Amino acid sequence: MVTDQSSLFFAGNATFVAELYARYLQDPASVDPSWSSFFAGLDDDARVVLGEIQGASWAPNKAAVIGVPDPDAKPAAPAKGAKGANGAAAPVASGITPEQLRQAQLDSIRALMLIRAYRVRGHLMAKLDPLGLEKRSEHPELDPKSYGFTDADLDRPIFINNVLGMETATLRQIVDAVQRTYCGHIGVEFMHIQDPEQKAWIQERIEGIRNQTDFTVLGKKAILQRLAAAEGFERFLQLKYTGTKRFGLEGGEVTIPAIEQILKRGGQLGLKELVVGMAHRGRLNVLANVMNKPFKAIFSEFQGNAANPEDVQGSGDVKYHLGTSADRDFDGNTIHLSLTANPSHLEAVNPVVSGKVRAKQVQRSTMPPTDAARAEVIGLLLHGDAAFAGQGLVPETLLLSELKGYRTGGIIHIITNNQIGFTTSPQYGRSGPYPTEVAKAIQAPIFHVNGDDPEAVVHVARIAVEFRQKFLKDVVVDIVCYRRQGHNEGDEPAFTQPLMYKAIRNQPTTRELYAKQLIAEGVVTAEEAEAVVTDFHKALDAEFEASTTYKPNKADWLEGKWQGLSAATDDDRKGKTAASMDLLQEVGKAISAVPEGVDVNPKVVRQLKAKQEMFATGKGIDWATAEALAFGTLLVEGVPVRLSGQDVGRGTFSHRHCVLVDQTTEAKYVPLDHIRPPEHKEGQARFEVHDSPLSEAAVLGFEYGFTLAEPHALVLWEAQFGDFVNGAQVIIDQFISSGESKWLRMSGLTMLLPHGYEGQGPEHSSARLERFLQLSGEDNWQIVNCTTPANYYHVLRRQVRREFRKPLVVFSPKSLLRHKLCVSDLAMFTGNESFHRVLYEDGVDLVEPAKIRRVVICSGKVYYDLFQERETRGLKDIAILRLEQLYPFPHEALKIELAKYPNADVVWCQEEPANMGAWSFVDRRIEGVLKDLGHKAGRPSYAGRPESASPAAGQLKRHNQELAKFLDEALTVS
């Protein structure tokens, strides 16, 4: 039994036998023959264990301990008649036989194995459920009998080498100690952590003399006051707005003092800013009691008044989705708090918070952020138990935690564990014993704690923030509590959980239980405890009276980093996007040079030399070069650029190569980091390019969050294929498209979605243009489908060259990346040039405008299909117009162009099926333009693929047949 579990012995700590074994390895004859025989019979595992253990520090009185010999004592001569392990006479040391020595050694090993089992499994026996409904059976690994102990061994002293703070202890004392440490109101999971320092730190924090927070009288009273505020606020709302949905915190009120402890202790450890994300449950309580949002403002919103000033437009959102910010002072440490607005999609806010934290850390530091900056800005995510276990964005966001381009130095996760998901009990909502199993994937420590023990919760919160600040890693606090009111305040939870809610009806509140505890301890009197409640209720009454006349006097959406920006205007909004020719050539030289000392792939060298020719002639600027020019000119102008997504360094289609990889060493060289020589480096902003993991939702949410905190950078996310954006639809629907309207939060995020029908099948053709157009409204973003590198360059620079910010969705090309016609002259990037919403054809040999019989309007790659087919047919009386920007729809620009062709009919041509693409969006809008003109065409006709359930054909032959058919329809005038 000893040798089978010797690895457990090693993890448990050294015993005295290690010293003897070290002597044995040096000289087997230096130890008594009985010990020599014992060591010789050990298996390989035991040898490894004993070989790795360093000699223990031995107390001088050890020989006096019953059953534990002094290993430094010289072995005495064997007693007459005694037999050793090899049949020889056994030695006697200080009157103790080898059998006694061996028993003592086995006792130590077994005891340490038992202690280690409690470290690993003790949480399974912890008393975590305030309702007492969870029945936990004894775990066999926590039973001393599993290690060979009997009841007769309970009071025999055992040497455990200062483990649990005791040099020796009886088995009874050991079991009592580990049960108090690991099986009380706190259950800890940390033995899955591979880093020895982190594991040792937690073990010492849990088992050592600092295993409890020293609560002062003032500290205890503060916890009671915060519980009274959390409970009182919910009860007041229930009284005044009975049955109104608020998704209250009742049953989990202890979350409030837990957050307060994170702020207080975090401030002592360098915290300057906390970015908070949470779903709707308990949000109003956090807004009021943590974020210090005025109670009268919240009551005013319950009365139907707007959360923002009357002159601020937008659809708004329900009360329990709104965010806010505030400054709080803790012992002289001012901490800025921001609660991120988010929808009911539970965990969707997680990556958004992570991105905001990263941006704020970069603002305080360099790139990448320093550890000091990471200590100053922390993300705090509050989760529900069912959501943490069930929502895929949880592991996707955890995945980012240690990656170079996304690391924030650790998020603190608090799970308000109501032990239910809507109406689903845990045994039907997850497969593991806890909702936190997924956090083990990143080796985060997990603290489970009984929510009806406020001091245990605050203690764990303190440990959590200390761990985060020391190791800059994620940490999870699982507060096991309950949900007093059901899923919402109009719900009847007993429909589905009758036994749970019978227990809840009889369960005193956490505040009541804690007040009773403090009264028994003499910390407060019963009258003082009651006064805390009544005084808070009186304050709420006063706030309620003030709420009837309360009006917000300003919105906070253009403060801090957003100062100087404004709401979007109704003019052409082109911005100044051209750069000087000198700057273009300077950037061109940097991005086309073959760097010295770098073994560049020969194929990339050919591309670089092709770029050199472009800048020498000023002709043939392709898509990737135009993009690099946009990035490089912005960098020199002091605008940071961040590009993230799957394979963005090289580019999915091997076109970008903004990161050159040395073919010998794999060292990376980024040309855009070397536009200016080192002595002028201060004039060049940072360029980040990060190949992301295979996650769309988390990475896109992260980049969106980054833009919420940093409006003065060009931030781009690129899908590997546009179709892959499907995986991030929640982020698009709930945040990017509607965040400004719902929450008054601007974003300048740019999304690059490769889109185009080239016979690659249904999964690699469409970025679902129709979905984005359907989401378009209230000037919420910009959707473009550019056909020239120059227009792409200008639309990128436009993102940061105006006084407002809007998300930009670019339907970017695939085949056009190398299309011989899809090039621009360098002159199109300078002078007075800018982005064109509508492009007409220049330099094409057509009849005079009055004789044009048809105008084909299109967008994106299909223009080149139309152009080449028209050339093949030799048609001169068909003009093609390109809608480069689909939203906001360029009504006036299109009107100017269509007015040139009074005698033409009008056709909309697209390569997507009729029920997809832009047709349903542009149909009536083009009709409106024609109506304004009094044009004879009346409304456009359609040329394109027929309706389809699938985005594209799976066979190239069919694809080509469909292409030929609709091109013929577009170019054949009856």
UniProtKB/TrEMBL annotation:
Which cofactors does this gene product need?
thiamine diphosphate
The reply to whether Oxidoreductase figures as a keyword in the UniProt entry is yes
Give any single GO term for biological process: glycolytic process
Q: Tell me the Gene3D superfamilies matching this sequence.
A: 3.40.50.12470, 3.40.50.970, Multifunctional 2-oxoglutarate metabolism enzyme, C-terminal domain, TPP helical domain
Q: Which UniProt keywords apply?
A: Glycolysis, Oxidoreductase, Thiamine pyrophosphate
Q: Where is this region: Disordered?
A: 937-956
Domain annotation Transketolase-like pyrimidine-binding: ranges = 621-819
Q: Name one GO cellular component term.
A: cytosol
Quaternary structure annotation from Swiss-Prot or TrEMBL:
Homodimer. Part of the 2-oxoglutarate dehydrogenase (OGDH) complex composed of E1 (2-oxoglutarate dehydrogenase), E2 (dihydrolipoamide succinyltransferase) and E3 (dihydrolipoamide dehydrogenase); the complex contains multiple copies of the three enzymatic components (E1, E2 and E3).
- Give the protein family: Belongs to the alpha-ketoglutarate dehydrogenase family.
Q: What is this protein called?
A: 2-oxoglutarate dehydrogenase E1 component
